[in-house]
Amino acid sequence: MTSCNAKDYGIPQNRERVFCISILGDHEPYIFHEKQELTIRLKDVLEDEVDEKYYMSEERVAQLTWK
Q1: Comparing C-alpha atoms, which of 47, 32, 41 is closest to residue 1?
Q2: Which helix (H) or strand (E) holds 16?
Q3: In terms of DSSP bridges, do strands 16-19 and 2-5 run parallel, antiparallel, or are they unpaired?
Q4: What separation in angstroms does the CA of 26 have from each of 2, 30, 40, 43?
Q5: Which of 10, 15, 17, 44 qualifies as a cystine partner to 40, CB 3.0-4.6 A?
Q6: What pLDDT, in 10s, does the model give residues 8-67?
Q7: What kind and span of H or E run contains 64?
Q8: Which pLDDT value is given to residue 67?
Q9: CB 27 within 8 A of CB 18
Q10: Using CA of residue 26, residue 31, residue 14, residue 48, what is the dihedral sign?
Q11: C-alpha dihedral over 16, 22, 23, 29, to 10 degrees?
């Protein structure tokens, strides 16, 4: 069992995951890929212009926020 974080594999997100690998019978040991240096930032992959349909209305935001 091992834990991996997306940011250690070239993805600009802090996304931790735990992996359990189980292989029945004789086998070579499972080896995870080597960690990579993070060379891009999240803002490098985000779109500059996003369609309005992906935004919440002010009314919906008010419903979801605690005031």
Answers
A1: 32
A2: strand 16-19
A3: antiparallel
A4: 21, 12, 40, 45
A5: 44
A6: 998 999 999 998 989 999 998 888 889 989 899 989 989 999 999 999 999 989 889 876
A7: helix 58-64
A8: 62
A9: no
A10: negative
A11: 50
